[in-house]
């Protein structure tokens, strides 16, 4: 029985591979095209922020200029210094700036006192998937600005009052502090979610993740095709097997083993094809992928046994399977999804399966 | 009933609703038993129970021998050839299978004519012949056939009827659930199933008349 069943499995491989590869390539091309668009430098990916700093806030202006010169900021945020608060609000309302930052009068003087004032961050309810990126960048920048201002102020006051320095000496101290400040600021940045749009590695991560997801997707979906459900004659086969002395468990294990065999052959074919596209494929994955494939085979075959009707299996495999894959970031990278979906992925077992798959294949 | 190869006594079976009620039938060695009834009367369920696939709620079923069940839907894999399908259920080699198909009563089914043809390219008659041969390779003493002539052409029907005669002559016991009068002519006794209740068809009454009542 196993021999005949394996033969059947082998007969299905070209069909499964062709069908899902065409589907996979079409979807992957669309997403990669979209990601190229998103990662393009000359697009709206650079966030425009309007900032109001009162004239008397010399330290704030200094801090702002410092922030503007930071590499990580100047490639992602276009800081537009505005001279009136109302104009900042209007620019955000009219979409000229995605966010506005208003530093209040007396901000520096009252910093560290019970009457300390807050920097106001103004933004609209963004209606695109960039919402979380925009918010993170705005918060990060505000935080950096505040830290910079605070440190420069403290260093200046310390130099003047405690060391009794003249004005030139104060500036020397400030320069030294500013230099050390960068390290501190960069450390603080790690507390925020960063999306470096210029980072080429990020682009490849997306491709790696998508390649891993689609491979897993192909493997998952192939199980329905090779199960006895394919032609809707599951009950007949089970009866026939029972009469031939093959119990349900034995049949289940035979089917799972054959499904795993098919998936493995599929993986080898996909692996060989992927070697032409990615130069970082890991040969070791031909071994590490085995437990993943066994898990998928057992779960898929078990599902075919638990659900009575072939159409229900079809709905579950294609409907629920595809939805879970989507929510796991398998079809669209999680970075492009709203924050809620990103958090929800932590509860999705497929998310971890994709990560494992990706690490097995590439990293 | 003492020398019966199959004895079904007062069997009732419930599956969501009552399908069989106090059914009592029996068959001797070499007998061909017909099961007559309208759709949903419980014929297939009774055959499944005799095959051991369903447990009766009450009553007892005794089968003295190995049963082979030719189901209404064929348990065949469409992508494989006839030979691969046969190999799926038997440890025999190709030569041994070919010998069985050409030198025993299975030769009536003419399966060797299309042994290397894929099931998906076969006609309904070929598929049914192959399904019967696949069951017969395990050498059952009792053959249970559910609607074996459904949707077959005349040559295929004749071949299967000839096979039934041959199997019975060689001492095999056959239970046939069918609507076909042609097949009932070859039965030594016919049980009528009406709403799950069985009765022996009296002599002189044709199956069609019995169903009309």
What does this molecule look like?
The complex is a heterodimer of chains A (363) and B (213). Helix content of chain A is 67%, strand content 6%. Chain A is mainly alpha-helical and 363 residues long. Chain A folds into 2 domains: 2-38 and 199-361, no CATH class; 47-189, abc type-2 transporter like fold (3-Layer(aba) Sandwich). Chain A has a 4-stranded mixed β-sheet, with helices on both faces. In chain A, helix 10 (285-306) runs antiparallel to helix 13. Chain A is elongated and about 100 Å long. Mean pLDDT of chain A is 71; it is low at 39-44 and 183-204. Chain B has helices at residues 43-51, 82-89, 94-103, 124-136, 154-169, 181-184, 207-212; strands at 6-15, 17-27, 32-37, 58-63, 67-70, 142-146, 173-177, 189-194, 197-200. Chain B has one domain (6-201): 3-Layer(aba) Sandwich (Rossmann fold). By secondary structure, chain B is an alpha/beta fold. In chain B, 31% of the residues lie in helices and 27% in strands. Chains A and B meet through helix 1 and helix 8 of A and strand 5 and helix 2 of B.
